Amino acid sequence: MYRLKVFGLMALATLALAKDLEKTQNTLDHMLPPLMGKMHPLNTQNVGRKYLDIAYATQSQAQKLDIYLPKVGVAPYPVILAIHGGGFAFGDKASGEVNPQMHALKLGYAVVSVNYRLSKEATFPMAIYDLKAAVRFIKAHAKQYHLNPNKIIAWGDSAGGNLASMLGTTAFHSELEDLSMGNAKQTSQVNAVVDFYGPIDFKVMDTQFKQSGQQPRRKHSVNAPDSTEARYMGVAIPKIPYLVEFANPASYISKNTPPFFIMNGSKDPIVPTEQSVLFAKTLQKMLGKDKVVYIQLPGVGHGGRAFEEPKNLAPIFAFLKKWHLAPLH
């Protein structure tokens, strides 16, 4: 942790200077397997009021969010910050990928679905800057939109799981925040994290697939120059083993880290199951098992309907209630 603090600014500056890889849309369209493109439409049946395409910063057209308020519950509403996945290269706040989070509306949560700069536009750590700016925006405008600024849960899937986890563990790391993006008087601290099958340690993903015997369904191995992780970092993963640690949420775990709920499938062909297993163990070692819940869904892959089933969502909302993050009625 000491080295991360000492060399943080230097490492991030090096990343900013790294030569961008060629980013043609034709290549990007083939980076993820077909299953990632089969998105269901966004489920808005439980939406009361909505506020769409709100700019939370001004550096990019990507920096927008949608606010959905519930039909039930009492304002101010606790907030589910929905962070879509897509390999850091694809995805949208209005896609069905955030349908698991939209189920929270039925219980009286507000859902804020957020876009961030993708790897076609910017490399690490810009997505983190964006999401922290979004959190600060939510807190600064909480009264206007009937939101509770003290009950914000970051909930993401796949790449969004990594980003949600980064929000949870890096709240007090100034090298991973750009206050010039607005609302500098607010903090970007969130109160809990829900991580669905997020990639955590890019360096070991290929090795974990090999050891598990699970056949990956990826266009490129993680260590390949064209992998989604390489595009996110701006350079091939094997060339920057130390710098990759800055994109690893486990590098920043501290006593200030909020409660975590982690869920993945035992047959994930995109992100090795061990990514979630080891992350949960590391969190539990630092925070205690009471503060960290890990559930593995047997026979389930990367995303899909299983992560929307009420029986699988119920433990998440029970966990949030335990930590006093449930809505009022």
Automatic annotation (TrEMBL):
It comes from the Bacteria. Keywords: Hydrolase, Signal. The keyword Amino-acid biosynthesis does not apply. PROSITE patterns: LIPASE_GDXG_HIS (PS01173). One of its GO terms (molecular function) is hydrolase activity. Belongs to the 'GDXG' lipolytic enzyme family. This is Putative exported protein.
